[in-house]
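Need a sequence for this fold. Nothing fancy.
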């Protein structure tokens, strides 16, 4: 029995049922390949896991299924680097994407023309790879970098109790890079480097009215020069003017976007409750939104949600009286009058409209940040998200 790798047929969609991992959707769905998926693809600098997924799948968040990953592997996926060669393998019951040189299940593939169980001569091979090359990210890092290494959303009590700037050198009103500030709330064992923030607006759940946290504005960085009852700090950099009353918050560890896209749980829902202050009008593709769901709701980095606009309630429009000579048409006044005159002008609720996808890249306790990956119309506040 010969072992061979069958290339993807152009223009065909795989309709065979896929055995999903236990953590995936409860209802099994076929894995649909994209139109004309490449049977061999060389990863290049600038690629993302999402972008590669779109080459192979109609639903990019089904990437783990194509790799045959379990839940632990999704949280710690194989690193993919520029120069890696991906092979689409259709030799089994389900399609699999793998690295060139790896056989199904991660074993070395038999040489072409050999049979299963036959003797295969193995020879040493040299595999070169640049050690300073970073693995490709899940989504474009340039779009989300400002949201990765700064708090931006904090709990109300956490921000209220944060160290506070109480004065500036020479009693200045505003401070910038190189200036000295005086802070209360730091102790001798506190870290030396802090970020400076100012409260912006509360994030309120539209359903429960619970305050989920506060968005804060990043102002700059500061470093302790001398601890004391009133600690002296130096402003290292200032993105905006820093004033008395602004707070110091520790910089969180930077998130490593090693997570691959995977669908949110089947019953997951949420609402778009905010957007960064940089958004002037409507939210578009490759911009960040805030969802009213966080770690306490089971949201994970890598979750993919579908975006929905609520359906409108409309009243059927009346038709003008027919000018036709047909007697039975001359009395028609509305779309529904031929069937039941009681339904004339009765309001109709249109179905919700799905118009895009969003990818969660940072999760807080009660809210999360998501990047709009695709959208056929602008995203509005109060739009909803659901499992795709």
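Here you go.
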């Amino acid at each position: 029995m010969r072992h061979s790798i069958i290339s993807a047929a152009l223009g065909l969609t795989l309709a065979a049922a896929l055995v999903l991992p236990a953590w995936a959707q409860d209802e099994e769905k076929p894995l649909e390949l994209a139109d004309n998926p490449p049977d061999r693809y060389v990863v290049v600098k600038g690629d993302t896991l999402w972008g590669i997924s779109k080459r192979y799948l109609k639903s990019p968040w089904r990437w783990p299924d194509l790799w045959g990953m379990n839940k632990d592997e999704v949280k710690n996926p194989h690193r993919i680097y520029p120069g890696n060669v991906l092979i689409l393998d259709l030799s089994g019951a389900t399609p699999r994407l793998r690295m060139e040189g790896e056989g199904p299940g991660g074993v070395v593939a038999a040489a072409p023309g050999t049979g299963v169980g036959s003797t295969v001569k193995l020879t040493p091979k040299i595999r070169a790879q640049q050690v300073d090359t970073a693995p490709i990210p899940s989504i474009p890092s340039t779009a989300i970098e400002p949201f990765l290494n700064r708090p931006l959303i904090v709990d109300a009590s956490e921000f209220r109790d944060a160290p506070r700037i109480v004065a500036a050198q020479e009693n200045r009103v505003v401070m910038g890079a190189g200036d000295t500030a005086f802070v209360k709330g730091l102790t001798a064992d506190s870290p030396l480097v802090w970020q400076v923030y100012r409260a912006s607006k509360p994030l309120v759940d539209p359903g429960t009215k619970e305050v989920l946290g506060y968005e804060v504005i990043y102002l700059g960085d500061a470093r302790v020069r001398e601890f004391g009852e009133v600690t002296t700090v130096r402003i290292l950099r200032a993105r905006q003017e820093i004033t008395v009353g602004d707070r110091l918050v520790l910089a969180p560890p930077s998130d490593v976007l090693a997570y691959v896209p995977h669908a949110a749980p089947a019953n997951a829902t949420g609402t778009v409750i905010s957007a960064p202050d940089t958004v002037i009008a409507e939210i578009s593709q490759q911009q960040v939104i805030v969802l009213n769901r966080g770690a306490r709701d089971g949201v994970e980095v890598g979750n993919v949600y579908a975006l929905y606009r609520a359906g409108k309630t409309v009243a059927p429009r009346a038709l003008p009286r027919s000018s036709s000579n047909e007697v039975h048409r001359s009395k028609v006044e509305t779309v529904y009058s031929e069937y039941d005159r009681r339904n004339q002008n009765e309001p109709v609720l249109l179905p919700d409209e799905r118009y895009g996808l969003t990818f969660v890249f940072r999760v807080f306790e009660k809210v999360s940040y998501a990047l709009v990956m695709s959208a056929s119309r602008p995203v509005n506040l109060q739009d909803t998200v659901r499992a795709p």
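For context: The radius of gyration is 28 Å.
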